[in-house]
Amino acid sequence: MINFRFLFILLLYCGALFAADYEIAERTQAITIQTLSLATEHHSETVRILTKGGTSYRKFLPFNGYVTIKNVTGTVTYPDGHTHQIRDDDVFEIPVIESARMMTDAKALLIVPPDLEKGTVIQFEYDRMLTSLLYIDPWIYAGPEVIRKTSCSISFPSQIPMKYYSTDPDMHGTKGQVGDTVNYTFAWSSKNSTELHQNFDLEEDVTSRVIFVPEKCMTDKWMLDTASWQNVADWFSRISQLTYTWDPAMDAVVNEVTSKYKDQEQIAEALYEYVQKSYVYTAIEIGIGGYKPHFTAMTFQKKYGDCKDLAFLYISLLRKAGVEAYPALIDTRNSRFFLAEFPSPTQFNHCIVYLPKIREGTWVDCTVKNFRLGEVPAILHGKYALVCDGPNTLIQIPIDPDHTNQFILNMGGAYDPAGVSLSGKIEVSGLGSMVLEQFRNALLKDRVQSYVYNILFESGVPIQTLKTGKVEDRTMELSYSIPVEEAQEFRLVLVNPVKYEGLEALPLNPVKGRLYSFGAPMRLTVNIDLDLRGHQLVADPIDEKEKGKYLMYTVALVQDKSNLHYSADVYFSNGLLDASELTAYQQELRQFQAALQRSVVIR
Fold first, then answer.
1. At 433, phi and psi to the nearest 5?
2. CATH among 2.70.98.90, 3.40.50.1000, 3.40.50.2300, 2.60.120.1130 for 403-602
């Protein structure tokens, strides 16, 4: 499901890779709502080039079938005082490709001011003509670009009311009304814009903005009412109600599964496996296709589709087999910015499936591979999903560390005065299986050992004789040895070699005004069983458990006769933190690292 607003932010980021090299001296935006499906916007901007690096400045203006950009004009003023009027040959139309597996009607105009140098000032303006009010440009007032001053106004007839929400709760518009025309104005200025640490999730997650949504509008021939989530769900149900078409060849798929299984959960599992193995994610989203799925019979025949297409195909197969199922809209971006009190389809960018009568409610994502029924990509945990086509209600997906992206290292071995030899296997679930897929591809190139070392182990850990064995869908055999180092009269023996890169990528000294993100959601588990062969452990047992706001972990070390049992289990969700939150997170991380770094020696 394409989200044009995300595309806008993505293109904004492309123009802001070196934001410190230029600044937005002033930006204005004036929006005029004319009818339930027509609006115009006028934009103007003044950009100042600050460094030599800023001479690569470009302005991207995205558009699609509902958006037309007109009247692009501007002036470039150089440090010596001479000017250049932006001409047609300074503006290029380019295709926008969000993914190699996505085809849309999205394009962009690229403004390329010529011969830029330090000190140059660029002034330009343009108009946007909209035939859908869902594509009103958000007003961006802080983000990766340095914005000194900016303002926005939106006017609309009182009979076509608009609503807005801001990522900053302190940002409010000033309301006025003349006759039947209502107007909101917003203004912002600052010497410093919000900055972004280089380890980010999505640029949209860290951009301060105000988003405008109509309370009612036309979307092609369907009326959208955003007064409640039930109304939004009803709108999606109406635009997709004709999607459920049946190809007679689909009977064979259902009959094969129902002849083997009678239990609904087993049927759902088998059909989920069929969809994952038989279809590829390829999105063709033109016009309303960003929200409206294609016919299920077409998806079945073509063997590809986007999230909506695959979800509706799966639902069609399930319903034919007698399993209750519904489509659900959800947002894959950071939950920090989802507003449950602000109904709008623009808050979603993904479609999944809800099975209400399996395991007291099971969520299924049909775009992933090698998942089992009940496993939900961890990036969806804790998110709100709008279940449509019947329930028409907002439901929060539970946070479930036991059914997430898991990476488990189970190793066993024996102590020897010269070193420790360990063998075992890696087990994965969810998106962790993608790591094994990388290993499998590396196996074909005879490079598995280097892949394992670089991805799995901390740099510098003295891993020796690393060997990999059979690689299956969710497991891979592994063996390695670690030399025993002298430590006075004792010998250091136990080292947890696993890399916790996603947790440690944040700075120790957060800067106020910056936002930071850490790692993809993951649960990492290390289990080591070691035969001490008569030697004695010289260390206190470890039994630490912590369920903090950001990390949940346990680290345990026990000795049972001549055997040593070690485990470290940590779960972290994807996070987007400001400076004050980062300080608390760092404290939890230091506690976890201290538990990992306990020295364990053998005598």
1. -65, -20
2. 2.60.120.1130
